[in-house]
Amino acid sequence: MPDILGYARVSTIDQDVAGQSLRLTNAGAIRVFTDVRSGRATDRPGLEALFGYARTGDTLAVVRLDRLGRSLTELLATVAMLKDRGIALLSLEEKIDTTSAAGELVFHVFGAIAHFERRLIAERTKDGIAAARARGKRPGRQPLDSDRIAAALKLVSAGLSPTAAARQLGLGRSTVYREVSRAGIQRPP
């Protein structure tokens, strides 16, 4: 008898997979594999364990497609691998079930739309940067004010803590610590 196997992923340890696991169990998953990894991470032990456990005829269930992969290319490669192994994909949010022809078509349409949206965002970002440059703006992080850095280094050399120097001059604390380290200034214990 084919089984439904759930896969839940969260990006950080501050997040909890319990909500996803509950939804997957309610959808019929007999076992839920989990990962606490960024979507960018290529190593996902939970997903690899699921692939090792799954048999032909089983269904991989996820709450949302973004839990399985972050890019259209990654999702399509995963679905192709699942199809080659005879494993279906079920996405609860998008209501995609690749066991049917309609479900497979919907998956590809959603994937194409997501890819299109990412391309539009990238194009708008490029256009915004070009417009800012045309107005004389320099996008990105602004260069450090060398006078304020020099003043912070003098204050730290005089015995003020980097944190207090940063607060007094309106600089970031980590910036002052980094510059103190670069300058080789020894702070009193």
Provide key terms for this protein.
189 residues; alpha/beta; Rossmann fold; 2 domains; 5-stranded mixed sheet; 5 strands; 13% strand
Question: What would you note in describing this structure?
Answer:
With 189 residues, this protein is of the alpha/beta class. Helix content is 51%, strand content 13%. The chain contains 7 helices and 5 strands, in the order βαβαβαββαααα. It has helices at 18-26, 45-53, 72-84, 101-134, 146-157, 162-169, 173-183; strands at residues 4-10, 29-36, 59-62, 88-91, 96-97. Helix 5 (146-157) packs antiparallel against helix 6 (162-169), helix 5 (146-157) crosses helix 7 (173-183) and helix 6 crosses helix 7.
Spatial gap, N to C terminus: 68 Å
**Beta-strand residue fraction:** 5-15%
Principal-axes shape call: elongated
How many structural domains are formed by the residues? 2
Figure out the total of helices. 7
CATH classification class of the largest domain: Alpha Beta
Radius of gyration: 25 Å
CATH topology name of the largest domain: Rossmann fold
The CATH superfamily of the largest domain is identified as Resolvase, N-terminal catalytic domain
Lateral strand order in the biggest sheet: 2-1-3-4-5
Average of the residue pLDDT scores: 87
